[in-house]
Fold this sequence. Notes:
The chain is an alpha+beta fold. Helix content is 23%, strand content 38%. It has a domain of 230 residues. The strands form three sheets. Strands 5, 7, 8, 9, 11, 12, 13, 14, 15, 16, 17 and 18 form a twelve-stranded mixed beta sheet that branches. It has a four-stranded antiparallel beta sheet with strand order 1-2-3-4, with no helix packed on it. The protein binds zinc ion (2 copies). One zinc ion (ZN) binds next to loops.
Amino acid sequence: MQNFSKCPNCGGEEYFNPETGMLVCERCGGTFPVNEPSTQPTKREYTPTFQPNNVESNQYECATCGAKIVVGSNGEVHRCASCGNRTVKKSDTTLTSTPDGIIPFCITKSRAAELFRNWVSTRKFAPSDLKQMAKLEKLSGLYVPVWNFNFDITWRYSAIGVKKYTDDDGYSEYRDCPVDKVKDASFSNVLRAGSSKVSWRLVEDIGNYDFSKVRPYSTDYLLGFAGLDTDIDVHSVYDKITSDIISDNERVAKNRLEGEYFEVNNFNCRTRFRNVIFNYTYVPVWANHYTYKGKRYHCYINGQTGKTGGSAPKSFWKIGGLTLGILGTLAAIVGLVFWLI
Ligand SMILES: [Zn+2]
Ligand SMILES: [Zn+2]
C-alpha cells in the first residue's frame, strides 16, 4: 500500500510515523506536524434525522469483499486491507463519510510484525511451520470506522408485588405491595461497528481504545495507511443499542421482582434515554490476513495498545497428541484404581 503526500522541502513522499506522531519524508528525513483542523473532535447530539457529512476522497474498491478504502491525496492501494486480496481498483465513486475524529497509530509496522510473531508462537496448537511462515506476513495498517455513543438513562419500573405470609398454624395470607423504582445510569464509549467489512468480534477482542487520545480527523493520518468507509447506518446502530438496553432492563427488573415476590402483577418498565451524543471515529488496526493450506485466517493488532487477537490453524497432530496424552493418563488412572481395589 502506498499513500503519500509530497514533502515541502524536497518533493519526496511523506508518511505518518506512529512513533513520533509526525509526518516524515522518505527522501530527506524531514519531519512535519500533521495538519489538523482547528476544531476539536465533535460530539454530536443524536437526532433521528442526522445525515453523515460526505466529502470528496481518493477511494478504492475491493472486488472480493466490496470494502471501500480511503487513502490520502496521492495514495494508491494494491491490497485490500479488509480481506487481504489483491483485488482493489480505483473507485468511480469519490464520496466518503468524514470521521469526526481519529485515534492515530502508535504501534509501528515493525513492532506489529514482532507482535504477530509472538502471537503465533503462543498459539497452543498452531502447526510448527506456521511459526516459520509468520516471517512473511503481509500487514496492513487500517483505520476501522466505529460509532461511539454516550448517553444517560432513567430506568423506571413499577408493579404490584404479592407477598405470601404463612403463620405457625399453616394459614397463608397474601398482601399487595406496590413497587416503584427509579434508577439513573450513564453509559460512555458504547462502541459499535461502522463497517461490515471487518470482523467486529476481532475488533472487540483487541479493544479498549483510549478515547481521550482522539484527534480531529485529518487525511494526513492516513499517509501510509488506509481508512475503511462506513456502510452501517448510524440510525440502525442507535435503534439496536436502545432496544438491547430496553429489553435487558425489562429482563433484570422482572427477575428481581420475581425473586422477591410470590406473584408480580401490573408490571411496567420504561427506559428513557437522555443526552445522547455520538461520533464517528477511526480506530487503528494492523490487519494480517494469511493463508495456511488453502484456508484464510485473520490476525488483528490494536494499533494503539498492541493487543493482539485472531484465528490460527490448529495442527491435527498436536491436538491428536494431546488427546492421546489425556487418554493415556485416563487409562493409567483407571488402571491404578483397578489395581487398588
Ligand atoms: Zn523531503
Ligand atoms: Zn477486500
